[in-house]
């Protein structure tokens, strides 16, 4: 049942405020305490975290790396499961091994989990399907409560994965003395406001549809972002490739002049994801380098960022203001809707893109 939407993907994008609220209510008490099942994780006994996943779940891990390192000061290594499993990396004893998977059945992620079993201090999974193999075989499993995701393109699972991951980060930071009670309470209250902020972002649907209409004529598209917006750029490029079949690549903005800027001309739209944060000026200066080469920029930022930097850009998409830590969850919305509307404009099979399966149970 598509609930009145044209595609499951559209329905699942629209469900995000509700399911993120659900995920929060499962883990956060009324008093603002984060409760993990089965005794949770003792983050004071962990020296490092290894995160392993595939596809969109891998990008959720990349975001979590920024969060864990900046907020909880725990070193994190992230790898795609198909590389990790055959590299057979050494796993020091005080490692928390964390696996993220919507289906909980992805063959490479499951193999990586089995490799870590008995080596890592603890194996933890963040999954959507509680009865899945990855959930059953990990020491502790945290459901994301996104509900069934039908569209091959992962949308609500991604934002719910990020929601559960940020709760883990806050829990870790608090346990390790990197964050006091007051700061934790601030973050929890910001998280509680997130569903309504996402609703505001979803109201920009028409602007995103118009930008997507322009994108649909492109052969190649570049996505740029810095810091925790870099994984979002990767996610935007993957979504676009997956369902619209347009070649899209993402770069960390600072990498632009190390190669990809050679691709830029008036035929290559460049999507810049840049909330008005500490890295904004750096990203904008990369964006200006693109515009100086006639690149057509779609700038996604908040009102303040757009007021400062939208001169001369091709299109703008305005996101509401959100607490800095939460920008990756919010900016998933334009990543998803740009891809969705581009695919619709091209008439591709949005929910069932060619050559792809919802659950990749063979390697
Ligand atoms: O079920 P999983 O989360 O383990 O699946 C991982 C990837 O196959 C998945 O995220 C894939 O990249 C999506 N189709 C992306 O939209």
TrEMBL record:
Keywords, alphabetical: Aminotransferase, Cytoplasm, Glutamine amidotransferase, Repeat, Transferase
Annotated SIS domain residues: 39-178, 211-353
Catalytic residues (positions): 358 (for fru-6p isomerization activity)
Root EC class: transferase
A GO MF term: glutamine-fructose-6-phosphate transaminase (isomerizing) activity
Protein EC: 2.6.1.16
Reactions it catalyzes: D-fructose 6-phosphate + L-glutamine = D-glucosamine 6-phosphate + L-glutamate
Localization annotation: Cytoplasm
Subunit note: Homodimer.
Role, per record: Catalyzes the first step in hexosamine metabolism, converting fructose-6P into glucosamine-6P using glutamine as a nitrogen source.
Name assigned to this protein: Glutamine--fructose-6-phosphate aminotransferase [isomerizing]
Shown part of the complete sequence: 244 to 606 of 606
């Amino acid at each position: 049942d598509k609930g009145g939407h044209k595609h499951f993907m559209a329905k699942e994008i629209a469900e995000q405020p509700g399911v993120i609220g659900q995920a929060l209510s499962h883990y956060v008490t009324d008093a603002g305490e984060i409760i993990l099942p089965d005794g949770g994780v003792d983050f004071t006994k962990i020296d490092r975290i290894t995160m392993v996943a595939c596809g969109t779940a891998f990008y959720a891990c990349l975001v979590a790396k920024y969060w864990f390192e900046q907020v909880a000061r725990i070193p994190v290594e992230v790898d795609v499961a198909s590389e990790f499993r055959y590299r057979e990396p050494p796993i020091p004893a005080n490692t928390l091994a964390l696996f993220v998977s919507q289906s909980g059945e992805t063959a490479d992620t499951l193999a990586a989990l089995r490799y870590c079993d008995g080596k890592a201090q603890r194996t933890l999974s963040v999954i959507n399907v509680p009865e899945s193999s990855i959930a059953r075989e990990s020491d502790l499993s945290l459901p994301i409560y996104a509900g069934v995701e039908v569209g091959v393109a992962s949308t609500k699972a991604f934002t719910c994965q990020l929601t559960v991951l940020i709760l883990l980060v806050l829990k870790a930071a608090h346990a390790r003395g990197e964050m006091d009670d007051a700061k934790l309470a601030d973050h929890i209250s910001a998280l509680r406001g997130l569903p309504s902020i996402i609703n505001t972002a979803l109201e920009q649907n028409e602007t995103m549809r118009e930008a997507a209409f322009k994108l649909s004529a492109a052969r190649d598209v570049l996505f740029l972002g810095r810091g925790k917006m870099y994984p979002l750029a990767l996610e935007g490029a993957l979504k676009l490739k997956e369902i619209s079949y347009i070649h899209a690549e993402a770069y960390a903005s600072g990498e632009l002049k190390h190669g990809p800027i050679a691709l830029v001309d008036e035929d290559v739209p460049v999507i810049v994801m840049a909330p008005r944060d500490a890295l904004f000026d750096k990203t904008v200066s990369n964006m200006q380098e693109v515009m100086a080469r006639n690149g057509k920029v779609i700038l996604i930022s908040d009102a303040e960022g757009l007021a400062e930097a939208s001169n001369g850009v091709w299109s703008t998409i305005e996101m509401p203001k959100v607490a800095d830590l939460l920008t990756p969850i919010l900016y998933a919305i334009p990543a998803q809707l740009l891809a969705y509307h581009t695919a619709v404009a091209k008439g591709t099979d949005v929910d069932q893109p060619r050559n792809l399966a919802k659950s990749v149970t063979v390697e």
